[in-house]
């Protein structure tokens, strides 16, 4: 584990392997360890894999209040600046996918490719805003344990909770140890996120849209929505998985990602 100071916070991150840069953005309420199977695989397959803990999560400084997606994206850009990386393939899951879209909005020149996993592009609805802010209040009041137990079988399919207890335990542990103030700040920021729908048609870098077949949070229809609007995008549906196909079905997820990355594996600007 490494740390760097940037944008008035201390960021924890993994930086493994050598070659073109692949940056992995975790979802809520997780940390960079959700990408462990991908960090291990692709850092040994010719990629420099960078996986940061987002502001308020994991080893990175908690800043209470509201954390907009633009702040997360700026933190990632600042981390890349300090690491001397100019151009990346950026992969984000769930909230991480929305941060990847925001990164594209702010820093499109830094992208060589884009991976949008189990996420969606539309702005929040009014009821969704109320729900996210209410959940933020609840997490600050009650902590993470009750929430984590309630959503486990939506994050990971019930069948995989039974069949893959080590995965279920990892996911539950990540959620439980997330600082409530960090999670709440991200929820409030996501409630106010922009609508990326119109931007989808202007994405010109190679894009992979991937989703678990049984995802209830961001169903296949959300992935199809983005796939239909992003020029020349690739869509992959990972069977027998829910919201975290990279952990539930890592071999299948890695194979899909490897196929996508293969044409992008030539040397990037650094």
From TrEMBL:
One annotated GO molecular function: catalytic activity
Cited InterPro entries: AB_hydrolase_1, AB_hydrolase_fold, AB_hydrolase_sf, Epox_hydrolase-like
Ranges for domain AB hydrolase-1: 20-250
Stated name of the protein: Pimeloyl-ACP methyl ester carboxylesterase
Taxonomic classification: Bacteria, Bacillati, Actinomycetota, Actinomycetes, Pseudonocardiales
